[in-house]
Write a structure and sequence with these properties.
Largest sheet: 9 strands, mixed
Radius of gyration: 25 Å
Distance between the termini: 53 Å
Helix content: 25-40%
Strand content: 15-25%
Structural class: alpha+beta
Strand order of the largest sheet: 9-8-4-10-11-15-14-13-12
Shape: globular
Number of strands: 17
Number of helices: 16
């Protein structure tokens, strides 16, 4: 094999007799330490203490933390826990695959998902006090996604797109001003044939999401629930109104809505605005509230509509008119500037980035035969997204704080180093030539500098 040194080809000889002090996946230790620093590991241990067997040396809370770190590191099956187990000097004792499975099975069998959720809420409260709290209104995005099953697993069924698998519903907190981008709040695993607009499922996930928010924050916070047209149900919006939550949901272009749009005078339209606050080259917004009967919706409901020219080559549908494509929004937000409200709803598209990251962190593969065990796996995926968000928000700066999991793993999490011990002290040396070595070292220093409770 040939390698390059100083622009010249050099023959490489490979042997297996190197020092044992070299460790890999050093950056994953930052994620594990984040869990410990935010008291997530201790909270998991406390909440899951009833699962610990007398003779087992492995604490169930620690096992759950290690599983979350493994998923954040790129694993997508239980056997990938060996990635941590083989780095014992860095991660300490890591449970076997059989022990990890027994913990997952026990959580599912004893219906202890709420215990894991309480531990996540405890860590979130701690993280928000340290700077991971979003500014402005708290915006909760609800969205469903499809997860393909390649075998006949319990709960897998045909999907509306002709596939086969599951149809989980997820909730994320939009945090555009924070480096991590968005925090996972809640999720429910559902069969593949679950309805997209099932109000009961939306209400359950939204209720779970609200339980994740610190009590002292949401007492007087403005909370907005965003969803596509699947959320335009009377049950969900009544739940929002009863909980003093604002809503912004998509509205189907029914015949009355379409007639009201076409009846609008040209002077009723005003330019839409982009993320930078300036008018967009393509797009206008208008309000239809006075042109529609809205008595069946919550009081103060409003209907906004956006029109835009489709991009070249796009196929128009029967609801399009005069070369315009229309989208309607149902909201009860009182802001006078309808362009701001429309832009805020359009920013719901960021939840797609969060779901894509979840699928790159374990959600793409639900590995178990049992439905309840896969529901636990989904909660572990949300947990590992929690940890990545906290690590990026509290410990990283610049591009590294915003990059998605795949790039973060390459640059930081999978970095190797040399671990040495002397005088009861450990020293981890990162390769000087690695472009992001100083960033990783600084991240460990910032984590260590976080104030204790």
């Amino acid at each position: 094999m040939k390698v390059q040194r100083g622009g010249r080809e050099v023959t490489l000889t490979v042997t297996a007799d190197g020092t044992e002090a070299v460790v890999s996946h050093v950056g994953a230790a930052l994620v594990a330490e984040t869990a410990d620093r935010l008291e997530l590991t201790a909270a998991l241990s406390r909440e899951l203490s009833a699962l610990r067997q007398r003779r087992s040396p492995h604490d169930p809370g620690r096992v759950v933390r290690d599983l979350a770190v493994m998923l954040a590191d790129g694993g997508d099956a239980l056997c990938d826990l060996r990635t941590l187990r083989d780095q014992g000097a860095l991660f300490g004792p890591v449970a076997s695959d059989a022990t990890a499975w027994r913990v997952i099975d026990a959580i599912a069998e004893r219906d202890m998902l709420d215990a894991v959720r309480r531990a996540r809420a405890h860590a979130r409260q701690r993280a928000w006090k340290l700077g991971a709290r979003p500014a402005g209104p708290l915006i909760i995005d609800l969205d469903a996604t499809l997860v393909t099953a390649h075998s006949d697993k319990e709960g897998a069924a045909g999907t509306f797109k002709g596939g086969f698998g599951f149809h989980p519903l997820l909730a994320y907190l939009d945090c555009p001003e924070l480096p991590g981008g968005g925090q996972p709040l809640a999720g429910r695993l559902r069969p593949g044939n679950a309805g997209a607009n099932t109000a009961a499922d939306h209400i359950r996930v939204l209720a779970d999401a609200l339980e994740q928010l610190p009590r002292d924050v949401i007492a007087d916070a403005d909370i907005v629930v965003r969803c596509d047209s699947a959320g335009a149900t009377h049950e969900l919006l009544d739940f929002c109104r009863d909980g003093r939550l604002r809503f912004s949901v998509g509205l189907d272009l029914t015949e009355p809505v379409r007639d009201a749009i076409l009846a609008l005078a040209e002077t009723a339209w005003r330019p839409a605005i982009g993320a930078d606050g300036h008018a967009r080259d393509n797009g206008d917004v208008a309000e239809l509230t006075d042109q529609l009967p809205l008595s069946c919706w919550p009081v103060s409901s409003r209907v906004l509509v956006r029109r835009e020219r489709p991009h070249p080559g796009a196929q128009l549908s029967f609801t399009d008119s005069d070369g315009y494509r229309f989208q309607a929004i149902l909201t009860d937000q009182p802001d006078d500037d309808i362009a701001v409200l429309e832009r805020r709803h359009r920013e719901r598209a960021r939840v797609e980035d969060r779901i894509r990251a979840a699928k790159d962190s374990g959600l793409q593969n639900l590995p178990f035969r049992d439905f309840d065990a896969n529901a636990v796996w989904l909660e572990l995926v949300l947990l590992d997204q929690d940890l990545l968000f906290y690590a990026q928000t509290l410990c990283l700066h610049g591009e590294l704080a915003r990059c998605e999991p795949k790039r973060l793993r390459y640059r930081l999490l999978h970095c190797a180093g040399r671990l040495s011990f002397h005088a009861r002290q450990a020293r981890l040396r990162l390769p000087r030539s690695w472009p992001w070595a100083s960033d990783l070292a600084a991240a460990f220093a910032r984590l260590a500098a976080l104030p204790a409770r």
